Amino acid sequence: MIIITGASKGLGKAIAKNLIQKDKKVLGLSRTNNNADFDILKCDISNYESIKEVCKYIKNKKFSIEAIINAAGIASMNLALTTSKKSTEQIINTNLLGTIYSCQLFTPFLIRRGSGSIINFSTIAVKLALKGESIYSASKSGIETFSRCFAREVSDFKIRVNCIAPGPIKTDLLRGISDDKIANILKQQVTQKQFEISDVCNIVEVLLDEKSESINGQIIRIGGA
Q1: Helices (DSSP H) in the chain: which residue ranges?
Q2: Which of 63, 64, 165, 210 has its CA 20 to 30 A from that of 84?
Q3: Which residues are tagged catalytic?
Q4: Which of 157, 154, 148 is closest to 219 using CA atoms?
């Protein structure tokens, strides 16, 4: 079974549905169901105790966990000086702490299994150092560094940890961002085009495949930067 955080919408939902179509068993986690057409457990990944409750559920059901995909995340495109304390905390707590908590609490299931793959999500904004995305990028930069270090910590257990950093992908996170700003980001990519969610799903499939054991501790930037 594959754990997917943020499974009720955006990338998380698309990844979950794609894997289900590939006959994979998925355990979706989200703060809300959001009319998803597959089972989702209520979980706030920024809350350590909330994730512990999911761990109890997994143990009671005796699920075998083969992978963890941390797709939950929030964004706020705003200058650091005009971003509220509340918004700053929400971004850091959900993106960075949520990913760390998920890895801390769910990885023991992979250790018991004897192998596994963890996929975390960053953003190409980290590499490009985009104006107006300092706090969002800081949270994702933390995820990148954590992923690379954590990969070394769990490699002896045959667990791989990689990070996907997409450019502008057509999801809810792009709502409210002007076409001009998106075009400016695309100009800075190596491949200057806007990719689809399906492109992300393809990379996820590769990273989940046990044949990809040589890919570990990597940041894969969709579009290139």
Answers
A1: 10-21, 48-61, 85-91, 98-113, 125-128, 134-154, 179-188, 197-208
A2: 165
A3: 136
A4: 148
> Residue 29: in which H helix or E strand, if any?
strand 26-30
Please tell me whether residue 80 adopts helix, strand or coil conformation.
Answer: helix
- Residue 17 CA to residue 21 CA, distance in Å, equals 6
What are the beta bridge partners of residue 68? 3, 118
The SS3 call for residue 6 is: coil
Start-to-end Cα distance in the chain: 33
| pTM of the full structure | 0.92
With beta carbons less than 8 A apart as the criterion, state whether 102 and 71 touch. no
Give the list of residues 6+ apart from residue 61 with CB closer than 8 angstroms, or none. Answer: none
The total of other beta-carbon atoms located within 10 Å of residue 63's CB is 14
Residue ranges for the chain with pLDDT beneath 70: 34-35, 170-178, 183, 188-189, 191, 225
Distance CA 14, CA 12 (A): 6
Contact 64, 31 (CB under 8 A): no
Structural domains of the chain ordered from first start: 2-222 (3.40.50.720)
